[in-house]
Prior knowledge:
The complex is a heterodimer.
Chain A: H1 3-17, E1 22-38, E2 41-59, E3 62-68, H2 73-89, H3 113-116, H4 120-136, E4 140-156, E5 161-177, E6 180-188, H5 196-209, E7 219-225, H6 227-240, H7 243-247, E8 268-270, E9 292-296, E10 299-300, H8 307-313, E11 323-325, H9 332-338, E12 341-355, E13 360-373, E14 376-381, E15 384-389, H10 390-394, E16 397-400, E17 404-407, E18 410-412, E19 415-425
Parallel strand pairs in A: 7-12, 11-18
Antiparallel strand pairs in A: 1-2, 1-4, 2-3, 4-5, 5-6, 7-19, 8-9, 8-11, 9-10, 12-13, 13-14, 13-15, 15-19, 16-19, 17-18
Helix pairs in contact in A: 1-2
Chain B: H1 2-13, E1 18-34, E2 37-55, E3 58-64, H2 69-86, E4 104-108, H3 120-135, E5 140-158, E6 163-181, E7 184-191, H4 199-203, H5 207-222, E8 225-226, E9 231-237, H6 239-251, H7 256-259, E10 289-292, E11 313-318, E12 321-322, E13 344-345, E14 354-355, E15 360-362, H8 371-376, E16 380-385, E17 390-392, E18 398-401, E19 405-410, E20 413-419, E21 421-426, H9 429-432, E22 434-437, E23 444-453, E24 458-466, E25 469-478
Parallel strand pairs in B: 4-6, 8-20, 9-16, 15-24
Antiparallel strand pairs in B: 1-2, 1-5, 2-3, 5-6, 6-7, 9-25, 10-11, 10-15, 11-12, 13-14, 16-19, 17-18, 18-21, 19-20, 21-25, 22-25, 23-24
Helix pairs in contact in B: 1-2, 3-5
Amino acid sequence: MxxxxxxxxxxxxxxxxxxxxDFTLHINNSQTSATRxxxxxxxxxxxxxxxxxxxxxxxxxxTGAVSGNIFDEKSLQQLxxxxxxxxxxxxxxxxxxxxxxxxxxxxxxxxxxETISLSSEKMVDNIAKCVENAKHKDAxxxxxxxxxxxxxxxxxxxxxxxxxxxxxxxxxxxxxxxxKETKVSKSxxxxxxxxxxxxxxxxxxxxxxxxxxxxxxxxxMPVILRPAAVLNWLHYLAWGFNLRSADDxxxxxxxxxxxxxxxxxxxxxxxxxxxxxxxxxxxxxxLPVRDIDWIKNGxxxxxxSNRFYANKxxxxxxxxxxxxxxxxxxxxxxxxxxxxxxxxxxxxWYIRSTDQKVGEQTGxxxxxxxxxxxxxxxxxxxxxxxxxxxxxxxxxxxxxGESVHQSYYAKIPTMLIDDFNFVDVTTF
Amino acid sequence: MKLLLQIIDxxxxxxxxxxxxxxQKTKIETIYLRNLSLKNTSLKEIYGYGIRVFKNGAWGFSHxxxxxxxxxxxxxxxxxxxxxxxxxxxxxxxxKLSYERSYMDTFRTSFKIDPFEIPISEKVDLxxxxxxxxxxxxxxxxxxxxFECRKDEKLFASTIGTMLDITTLYIEPTFTATAIDxxxxxxxxxxxxxxxxxxxxxxxxxxxxxxxxxAEEAIxxxxxxxxxxxxxxxxxxxxxxxxxxxxxSVGHPTELDRVMGWEADFAGISFATPEKLGNFQYxxxxxxxxxxxxxxxxxxxxxxxxDGVPVxxxxxxxxxxxxxxxxxxxxxxLIDLNASRGCNRAxxxxxxxxxxxxxxxxxPGRVKxxxxxxxxxxxxxxxxxxxxxxxxxxxxxxxxxxxxMFWEIKNGKKVRPLKKVLYKSSxxxxxxxxxxxxxxxxxxTFGITNCGKGQPGQRGRMTHGGATARCRKIRVGGSQ
Lengths: 428, 480
């Protein structure tokens, strides 16, 4: 029996046997192959298949949920009974919202034959090329090559039923020799869009541009953040960009919906039909995916919200599902000429909030930092710690590069930002 | 156990150098309450097995949750196939496994009342009461309570004849009050971390008193001053705060896989390289870090690790000197160690075991000393309670940490609460600045249950501990 049919069969059983007033069922199946390598050798190599069920049931507004991965009728019956028992013992939830009914779902393509049929042998062949390249440079390489095929099924008592399928291939690698250390990573839905040769070229380009880094004074200065660094940071914006948190006074965005908070050059969207960018056909709450403008010319258009709060405010619920940031097609070379001096940063690391209300975060640079002056790269420098406020930093954007496919869920440009707040210098 | 042994026999017949099978049933109960609204009340049970094969110096791992003989044999064959693929790319003759003898044993976390036997309604009632107490204060606008308990039942068998039956359990209650006043919002959290204990431990906590304290301190914090410009001051750190500091700056740098570069692509590497063993002044002479997977109530106290190696107790740092690492059967031979320290742990059945931080604590001082004595002995300092913002580089050298509650100390007295305090330091400066550690009357443990590591990522757990300690002249100031 095909996985979709198996999922539907489980759904039918739940529908026929669940006595609750309402239920929402999610089933997820994933097949993974993951090969880790380090110091020019494979260290871990794994594969397998998982199927998990999550069932939430409600009596009135009292809710209980279970999840499990054994699907014979006796086990399913037990799961239903447990969920119903939790719900009946629970207290009413004043923010309960009934499950979604049937929706017409948009078609989104997130699989490819090339990815699905990619063999573990081919993945190891790719790693062999990486190791060979590293040895040629008398360096060490570490990373992971991973393939995941996932299928999602959702069913509600009120009539929603949806399937979604996605294939993702991702490859990440760090090359290191003495003080030189840099990384590239790429993830795609369609393996046809992945080129190991391009990845190795990019890795070698970054690696060759580095030298044993020297220490530099901390302080505010222009920075060119490459797409990986920008994406690192955007994840943290998404976590704190919630309407209810803003309305409750917890974030810097209180009373800022519809207002200019970010820089005019900063545009952030989620799109359901963007080439080479993944989008689900429905959200975990059962609503069909839709295009969302988050920030347009620096003005906040939408903040994330769940169904309860969106209903209360009379707006549509919203959640991030991919990141698309507009670019300007300005090259890194041109960017370097727009300021007297600055640094180029490949990626950011260990980002944490230091002040939720102000929106300040801290983190470090990683994977290579280059100092430039008068339009030319001068030297590799040691890493910095930075403390910055992202929405303020976007007001200091001087130029944007071409928006590129940084990941299967993100299209991001390089950013030249003035006066970036580097507060400390690391020892390497 | 019969199926396990069958698989092990077949693995032997198929010519593997080593194989093990771990059947694991995991049960997790989660309740999350926010402002009297239950956001999640769920029970998760996952059941399956992972088979690891070591052949020609390389690993293969495969997992499944179908328990038929056919499915298990297919999973074994897949693991062998994966190991053969791995063996194509290796250094020299590949990996080696350190010697280990076989064991037949059982292990159970010690508890009186199984938390899974306590009705959900009793837990929700307790959490609701705490939420109500917090929200009774006008300035508290957000009250959250997160409760989790987890039980793992494992059967393990390996080709060297080891057979283990292991059950571990922990409970973790955490609640947070967020106060809003004068355009700012600040939170204060009650957290003891995860503890490998039964419900009887929850019954000993005075929830009302703790809720009142947390609410009042959250309000005090939102109304507190900020510290201003960064200068060097003394820090007095409570055991809760130090649990995270030691996790990041001692625990991770001394994982042997990280030291050997196995985590270079994501979690990072370590400055604490093997040539520093026995000679590197990691901390001052009073600094002793003990790895102890035999620790009562410790989250890494599981009897045996997922290599089938018994739990142990050893010095990571002895009298300030880097002494040893946390190791596994496949990392120990990389630096010519004869045996593993038993730190290979997987989170779920479908995860491959990886080199994890053991239970790790700062040994209490030998001289009688209380936190009050330390404050009285400090002219210009900051007292930090709890865990806050934390960030450290990928070599585990340079870091910046915050906390959950801050007090300014002037001339031996706590003079005012503060907010938005951050300190910056590095290894080995930080632990070498420790000049006083309170005695064992003030020793406390805190369990970490969300230690992210590995590719694909796993959420590991271990316990840290210590008594309040003082660090001299650390860079500390307000945020920005």
